[in-house]
Amino acid sequence: MMVEGPAFLKSKVIICKKPKHLVTNLEQVNVHTAVVNTTLWQRFSSFSKLVRVVAYCRRWLRIRKGLSSRPSSEALERQEIEDAIKVCIKKCQEEGFRKELEELRKHGIIDKKKKSLKTLNIFLDSEGVIRVGGRLEMSSLSFNEKHPILILKESYLSGLLIADAHQKTLHGGPQLMITYLRSKYWIVGARSLIRKYYRGCVTCTRYSNRSTSQLMGQLPSARVTPDKPFLVSGVD
Question: What range(s) does the Integrase zinc-binding domain occupy (predicted)?
Answer without folding.
Answer: 160-209
